[in-house]
Design a protein that fits this description.
The protein folds into 2 domains: 139 residues, 3-Layer(aba) Sandwich (Rossmann fold); 278 residues, Dihydrodipicolinate Reductase, domain 2. The chain is 36% helix and 21% strand. The strands form 3 sheets. Strands 16-15-14-13-7-12-11-8-17 form a 9-stranded mixed beta sheet, with helices on both faces. The radius of gyration is 24 Å and the shape is globular. 40% of the residues are buried. Bound molecules: 6-O-phosphono-beta-D-glucopyranose.
């Protein structure tokens, strides 16, 4: 059973309190943690936004959102009555000087509590809100600020945000969210690597042939199309989530779980990402955009049809072959891909080991396959190790690939908490290990910027793919050229 330890009394101010993230993710996550008894009686959740709403209006919105976003058996009236007591609402236009007084009044006298400002707003407001908090005397020694992605759209804009927030908060007060780091299986990757001695000797060149990371989504861009069209899949998914996964797979063992030990190891990986020449960018990256197709038998429109002017070269799919220049990973490619409107929501990391050097077995019905360790992030979180085994029978020596398969949910028999539940608790406890440090964000942008510059100078085309397929043909050919294939085979 999980051990639920209450956190110190807090005031959590959510800027963007009426927005999608607050309603869909943050409030349901807080409802769960409250339900498990982790919040002391006086802790408050204070939503702030520009809308002139009464507290009752806001509570009505929250109730609707919880009913929509929780499973039927998770919402119950008694728990809601307790939870709603914690929730306050303050109208606040952060850009207007006089608009901060309700928030200031509400927080007055509560300086001793843990105070968290969660910025679920556009990043253009991160500097403004930080300055507003400072100007109104709302930053206490126990204050923390949480920044949602995107943290800029390139290295320069990320530095600008980091500088503006850094003028008001010390680095150890700033929590930059990458919600993938709050996913249970992502954390289990640390347990798998560093709580077992089995894998470490094999976790390197000489034993690993290559690594694949797939983050596939069946959903299209939908209502976010205007925003997404300006950024594309590389900035939306690779700069943060996928590079964080690369770091956790590739990093050396940290000396402890102390936040800086872990982050010091991750930054070394980001700095060791091999820069690519324009020629390498052309051959080692693939950009795709979904056209109309079908998913699960349902027809879906193409990306261009979702746009007002039907004209865009923004990628909704990207695949990259990247290399890490250090002793452990020299010449071991990491193939990463992510895309919208792929056949299913499916994210996994596959570590493929080298072939046996020489087969002693007669010609087989199933070719000998290399061992693969698959870490499934979603759905059905778990770990699978594929090995070759002999089929039972008195004659011959028939081999076939089989799996040692561990489903975490079956094994532990509990509901898997959403990443935000974990991350919010870590903020309230003051543990920044699962958040990105400034240097990580900037190093990731540095590498991503070089790819974008290569795409722009080469005018790299976006290849169309049919919605419901595994991306454009260029994605499979990129691996094919190296004699490899995506798992599961596209
Ligand atoms: C977000 C991206 O960071 O992650 C979205 O902006 C994407 O485009 C989402 O859909 C995927 O998250 P998850 O947890 O559903 O895999």
């Amino acid at each position: 059973m999980a051990n639920f330890v209450p956190v110190d009394v807090f005031d959590l101010v959510i800027f963007g309190g009426t927005g999608d993230l607050a309603m869909r993710k943050l409030l349901p996550a807080l409802y769960h943690r409250d339900g498990d008894g982790q919040f002391l009686a006086d802790s408050r959740i204070i939503a702030a936004s520009r809308s002139e709403l009464s507290r009752d209006d806001y509570l009505a919105r929250v109730e609707t959102a919880l009913r929509q976003n929780l499973h039927d058996d998770e919402f119950n009236d008694a728990q809601w009555q307790t939870f709603r007591e914690r929730i306050h609402y303050v109208p606040c236009d952060v850009q207007v000087h006089d608009s901060w007084h309700s928030l200031t009044e509400l927080l007055a006298g509560a300086e001793g509590r843990v105070r968290v400002a969660y910025l679920a707003t556009a990043p253009s407001l991160f500097g403004v809100i930080s300055a507003g908090l400072k100007h109104n005397g709302l930053i206490t020694p126990t204050s923390r600020i949480v920044l949602e992605k995107p943290l800029g759209h390139d290295y320069d804009s990320a530095c600008e945000i980091n500088n503006a927030v850094g003028e008001c908060f010390a680095e150890n007060q700033i929590y930059r969210i990458d919600h993938y780091l709050g996913k249970e299986t992502v954390q289990n990757l640390l347990a798998l690597r560093f709580a077992n001695s089995l894998f470490e000797p094999l976790w390197r060149r000489g034993a690993v042939d290559h690594v694949q990371i797939t983050v596939a989504e069946d959903l299209g861009v939908g209502g976010r199309v205007e925003y997404f069209d300006k950024i594309g899949a590389l900035r939306d998914m690779v700069q943060n989530h996928i590079l964080q996964l690369v770091c956790l797979v590739a990093m050396e063992a940290p000396s402890s779980l102390h936040h800086d030990s872990v982050r010091d190891e991750k930054i070394k990986v980001l700095r060791a990402l091999r820069p690519m020449s324009p020629e390498q960018i052309r051959s080692n990256t693939v950009r795709g955009q979904y056209a109309a197709g079908a998913i699960d038998g349902n027809a879906v429109t193409g990306y261009l049809e979702e746009l007002d002017d039907g004209n865009s070269t923004t990628e909704t799919f990207v695949a990259i072959k990247l290399e890490i220049d250090n002793w452990r990973w020299s010449n071991v490619p990491f193939y990463v891909r992510t895309g919208k409107r792929l056949p299913e929501k499916h994210s996994e990391i596959v570590v493929e080991f080298q072939d046996v050097p020489h087969s002693i077995f007669p010609e087989q019905r199933f070719a000998l396959q290399p061992n693969r360790l698959t870490i499934r992030l979603q759905p059905d979180e778990g770990v699978k190790l594929s090995v070759m085994a002999k089929e039972p029978g008195p004659g011959g020596f028939d081999l076939r690939p089989v799996s040692l398969d561990l489903s975490f949910e079956e094994t532990f028999g509990i509901r898997y908490p959403d990443a935000y539940e974990r991350l919010l608790m870590e903020v309230l406890r003051g543990n920044p290990a699962l958040f990105m440090r400034r240097d990580e964000v900037e190093a990731a942008w540095h590498w991503i910027d070089s790819i974008i510059a290569g795409w722009q100078s080469a005018k790299q085309k976006v290849e169309s793919y049919v919605a419901g397929s595994w991306g454009p043909p260029g994605s499979s050919s990129m691996l094919d050229r190296d004699g490899r294939a995506w798992q599961p085979e596209a």
